[in-house]
Amino acid sequence: MPHILTQLHKAIPSFIFFHPRVSLSLSSFLLAANNFLLSPPALEDRETPVSFEMATTRMDLDGRPIKPITICMIGAGGFIGSHLCEKLMSETPHKVLALDVYNDKIKHLLEPDSLPWAGRIQFHRLNIKHDSRLEGLIKMADLTINLAAICTPADYNTRPLDTIYSNFIDALPVVKYCSENNKRLIHFSTCEVYGKTIQSFLPKDSPLRQDPAYYVLKEDTSPCIFGSIEKQRWSYACAKQLIERLVYAEGAENGLEFTIVRPFNWIGPRMDFIPGIDGPSEGVPRVLACFSNNLLRREPLKLVDGGQSQRTFVYIKDAIDAVLLMIENPDRANGHIFNVGNPNNEVTVRQLAEMMTKVYTKVSGEPALESPTIDVSSKEFYGEGYDDSDKRIPDMTIINKQLGWNPKTSLWDLLDSTLTYQHRTYAEAIRKAMVKPTAS
Ligand SMILES: NC(=O)c1ccc[n+]([C@@H]2O[C@H](COP(=O)([O-])OP(=O)(O)OC[C@H]3O[C@@H](n4cnc5c(N)ncnc54)[C@H](O)[C@@H]3O)[C@@H](O)[C@H]2O)c1
Ligand SMILES: O=c1ccn([C@@H]2O[C@H](COP(=O)(O)OP(=O)(O)O[C@H]3OC[C@](O)(CO)[C@H]3O)[C@@H](O)[C@H]2O)c(=O)[nH]1
What we know:
Its EC number is 4.1.1.35. By secondary structure, the protein is of the alpha/beta class.
């Protein structure tokens, strides 16, 4: 192992870090806070890349200067990872060792070498299932963030073994290496660990159904309620729950410094794939990409079991602000489990379909279909063993108290920017793919 580490160290160029030497005055503190709160426009919304300049000392929530750190980010090439890398490169001095099997979603951050953050992000193509470089990379970093997972519901009941291995077995060495090497870990879990609400088991006419105590999901008091074993949908939630328990136990028994994140349906650009364009034609991504695909192809949006399930959606950029607060405020984040969602953005899936149809009509200029949705059974859509969470409203008390974080973006606004991106990125490719070759 030591010789592998030496090679890894040699492979990494020397990094130029921003060193905060500015003495703190009230005005610089206010400016830093202001810069932090007013994020610049998203990279994908910019015509040309904006030059990167760090003019002021960045401060943590307790008024201390933030020291640059090295982050080992596993699953950095995915949806959340790509947005987190973007944020870290454009607004912070931190260095990222980006680990994934794919890098398509972060290519714009890796090339060309002339980018303002060149040298602060380094991609390592590896599969954490079987790669001896993993421990060395975790050792080289101050903090590990584990995002790697199979996390699309269409896989949970059709590939339960892969799902359980990915979300539990493959995550085990990451926890172990962090614990053994005294490295801080931010582990990505899911809101799905709550499963179903207590409300869903109450009689339909029970007045208790109106009481938030029976449906708002709280990190420290809500139970985890899953369906039977034949309902393999819960393979993912159950694996995530067990890895949460393991991380928590490593904290309690061996002093691991950890934070667990439970995302509540984060959505935005670069989420999943559009079947037949940048993913398999028969693939079933999460609902945002399913509905985007239907809208782009001018097909009715498929409502599973009537689209009655409820979700709260949060804009990826709001959620990434929360993760950055966790990264830069370890004293406030360590030892905590955080819900990260937007309780104000609750809709049924049917309402989501209706809103996406309206927004897409606006951004594309194309009229909506006469019948914009179609009902489909879960068995037909997902296969045997599917089941669903009825309602997901995050309680925000803990994240509010510890990090002062609140989501900002309404569902309409986040769909507006996301569907503008989907239309700009995919409409032409879909049009070409849909033109059938004519017989000669
Ligand atoms: N997006 C959400 O709303 C949401 C909600 C709940 C939980 N989460 C959790 O957040 C994390 C990230 O989610 P996402 O939406 O970015 O998913 P994603 O699928 O876009 O990203 C996951 C990334 O992990 C990589 N990966 C998977 N297995 C790997 C392995 N063995 N080795 C190396 N890389 C591997 C994948 O290639 C992918 O790039 C996951 O743990 C997921 O369970 C996300
Ligand atoms: O074409 C479609 C696709 C889906 N639905 C229904 O929409 C609901 C939400 O589905 P989706 O976003 O795919 O996934 P879930 O919210 O159920 O689960 C995710 O939550 C967090 C995470 O852990 C990671 O993202 C994942 O497990 C659902 O009710 C579908 O049935 C539809 O009607 N039509």
